[in-house]
Q: What sequence folds into this?
């Protein structure tokens, strides 16, 4: 008998737009996975949570621990509201949490949103803490989405996520490769906030600006872009490596020019990555593009200017906006079934592994 599972995937990305919740119907038949996003919504962060999460890395251990607990309770309250609002049944909750520290080169990564609190608030079985096992095995703990890309979107040559950071899962010479490419909305949104906006709606700010080629050259020369193999980015890198360069040019340049320059930098790094994956023959290379950045017309236009690859933006907005929540729903279910959900080819760890901590009773799911 083919079992269907209703799994609620929860994702909070580095761009801090809010909490994504996606109830996904998942089923497996002979090793082939099928999915349907039943209901989905994003709950924007209020100023209290946005400030608390963005400043948490600077706080005391006691405040960190307290926030971990109370953010888990907050996620639990969102789950309860979601179930009541949509009148749905949830078999399992799979929560990514919100990343506060990501320093795999130093052997640690940390996402707040305690699974124990989430379970306590909802009474539902919960999987959380997906990244730490991989880091303990010498991996980057990221990207994790390649497992889902492989199982759910294998008809594309590559899957590109334009989120807080831009990351890609791609096929090359019969092998899988995946890594973070460059920053994305995490930097574009900060420029937008300087102009009193939450984000660059349709890329309108960038479209009104001009490229500063000196700044663009310096950003493109950042050492991260010469690294090969598994690699990932965190907010720490943004603050220590990326923003100091941008600040050198901030005063003499309009925010619109900074926005256009950063958008071109992102598009250029994506194109450079695709060229390397396709041996400089990107024409016909079919790439599924998802994430909030797909709505940034300036960024998409610049990507298409820099590369001849075929960028496919799905018509289904649920896939654009909730693909990562969908994939974490799948990763959570794989964890419960004790199946591999993290690929060493993507993270650089010693071996494929099974990530995620379990809270609650899973007997009905196994």
A:
């Amino acid at each position: 008998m083919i079992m269907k599972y209703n799994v609620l995937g929860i994702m909070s990305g580095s761009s801090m737009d809010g909490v994504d919740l996606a109830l996904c119907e998942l089923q497996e038949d002979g090793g082939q996975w099928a999915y349907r996003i039943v209901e989905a919504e994003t709950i924007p962060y209020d100023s209290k949570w946005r400030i608390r999460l963005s400043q948490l890395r600077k706080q005391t251990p006691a405040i960190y621990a307290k926030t971990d607990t109370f953010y888990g309770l907050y996620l639990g309250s969102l789950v309860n509201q979601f179930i009541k609002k949509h009148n749905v049944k949830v078999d399992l909750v799979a929560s990514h949490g919100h990343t506060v520290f990501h320093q795999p080169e130093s052997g640690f990564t940390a996402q707040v949103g305690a699974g124990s609190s989430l379970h306590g608030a909802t009474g539902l079985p919960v999987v959380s803490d997906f990244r730490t096992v991989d880091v303990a095995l010498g991996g980057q703990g990221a990207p994790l989405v390649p497992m889902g890309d492989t199982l759910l979107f294998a008809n594309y040559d590559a899957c590109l996520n334009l989120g807080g950071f831009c990351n890609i899962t791609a096929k090359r010479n019969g092998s899988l490769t995946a890594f973070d490419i460059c920053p994305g909305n995490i930097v574009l949104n900060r420029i937008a906030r300087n102009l009193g906006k939450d984000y660059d709606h349709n890329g309108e700010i960038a479209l009104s600006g001009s490229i500063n080629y000196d700044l663009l050259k310096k950003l493109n020369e950042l050492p991260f872009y010469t690294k090969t193999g598994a690699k990932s980015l965190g907010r720490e890198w943004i603050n220590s490596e990326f923003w100091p360069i941008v600040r050198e040019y901030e005063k003499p340049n309009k925010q619109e020019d900074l926005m256009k320059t950063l958008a071109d930098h992102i598009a250029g790094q994506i194109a450079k990555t695709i060229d390397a994956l396709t041996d400089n023959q990107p024409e016909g290379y079919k790439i599924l593009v998802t994430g909030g950045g797909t709505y940034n017309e300036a960024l998409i236009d610049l990507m298409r200017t820099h590369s001849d690859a075929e960028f496919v933006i799905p018509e289904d907005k649920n896939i654009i906006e909730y693909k990562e929540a969908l994939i974490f729903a799948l990763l959570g279910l794989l964890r419960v079934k004790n199946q591999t959900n993290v690929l060493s080819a993507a993270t650089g760890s010693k071996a494929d592994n099974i990530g995620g901590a379990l809270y609650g009773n899973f007997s009905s799911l196994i």
User: Anything to note?
Assistant: The CA atoms of residues 337 and 366 lie 6 Å apart.
